[in-house]
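Appendix B, Record 12. Input sequence as logged:
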Amino acid sequence: MTNPGNDCANGKAQRVLIVSLNYAPEMIAIGVYSSGMAEYMSRNGVETHVIAARPYYPAWRTYEGWRRPWWALRRGPEGTRVVHCPIYVPRAPTGGRRILHHLSFALSAFPVLLWKALIQRPDLILLVAPSLISAPGVLAAARLSGAATWLHVQDFEVEAAFATGLLDQKSLVGRLAERFEHAVLGSFDRVSSISGPMLSRLRRKDVAEWRITEFRNWADISKVKPITGVSPLKAELGIDTPHVALYSGNLANKQGLEILPDMARRLRHRTDLTIAVCGDGPMRGILKQQAQDLPMMRFFPLQPVDRLSDLLGMADLHLLPQIAGAADLVLPSKLTNMLASGRPVLATADPDTALGQEVTGCGRLVPPGDAAALAREVEALLDDAPERTRLGAAAGARAVERWDMRSILARFREQIHAVIRDPRPAEGQRDLSRF
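Logged structural output:
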C-alpha cells in the first residue's frame, strides 16, 4: 500500500528512494544511468533520495577522497539527496569476493534503508540490480513504509556469474543463488529490464506479465553528437594513423576482451590502424601484457564526460566484444553512446541476442571468440568508406529513434506515477510468499 499523504493527487510531491550500488561520480556503466534517472526525477518535481556505495568502478579501487570508513551524505546537482555507504572492494573480484562485495553493500545500506523507511516514508523504493543481495532489505523497508517496489535489472548477475565462470551453477552456492534470484524476481511490484530479449528472460523466470516493463538505457543526444572531420582528441593522445578502432569502457573479465590482442596480431600489417583501448578495470594489466609486442594497440585512461563526443568521434569504428552466453544476460551500457556517435559497431554476438538485435543494421556481428572473423570485418570496413558512412548514419538514427534520453525518462516518470497510484493491478498480487 502506498502512502496516500504523499500522492500527487493530494497536492504533495511524490517521494522515491533509489538503491543502487553504482552511482556518480562513477563515469561509466550503471552508475551513469542510476545518476541520470535520479537527477531527472528530482528535476521534474519528485523528491528523490539515493542509497549508493562509495565510488569504486571501473578500477575496483575506492576513489581518492572517499576512503574513510563511514557513510557520506551529499546533494546532487538537482537536489537529489545521496547517502554513500562504505563497502568492501576486492582488488581481484573473483566469485566469492564479489559475493562479499555485494553483501557488504547490503549490510551497510540496511540501516539507512530502515531510517528512510520509518522517517521519510517513500512512496516507491527502486532497487537497481546488480545488486540483488540488497533485495531483502529493500522489501523489508517497503513493508514498513507502505512503499511500492520496483526492481530494475541491468544485468542478470547470477547467470552472468555462471557464464563467466565466477560461479559454478551446479555448486551449492550456485543453486542457492538461483533460488534466491527466483524469490526476488517474484516479490517486487514491478520488474524492468533494458531490452526485449532480457524481458523475455524475465518471463522464462516465471515473472508475471503484469509486473514486467521495459526501461531502456539511453544516450544523451545533446552531449554525444557525430563528429565530421578529425576529432581534436586524436592529436592530443598522440595518435597519427589514419584509422582508429576504439574500445572504450570497463575492462572486466565478463566481456571477452581477450579477443582484442588476438585480433590485433592478425591486423599488425595494417600500419594505417591504431587499436585504442580507453578504460580501466581488472583486465587492464592483463591486456597490456598480452599486447606488449603490439605497438598498434594503445591504452588510454577514461576521458572526462565533456570529452565523450571527441573520444567516440575519434573512432572509424567501435569494438564491442562479448563472451558467448552473456549477450542476453547484459546489454552493454556503452552501446548507446557508440551508436549516438554515428560510427559503426563491430560486436561479437549472435544475431538473435539482445546485443545482436541492436547492432544489426548499424554495424557487423561476428561469433563470440572468433578473433579471425573480427579482424576480417575490421579490415573490410576500413577499406570501404561508403559502407562505414552508411552504417554510421544508421547507428546515429537508431540512437535517436530508440535511445533518446528525454523520451525514455519521460516514459519512466509516467510509469513511476502509475505504480505508486496502483502497485498491484487487478490481474496480479505481489507474491511475498517466495521469501
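The two ends are 19 Å apart (CA to CA).
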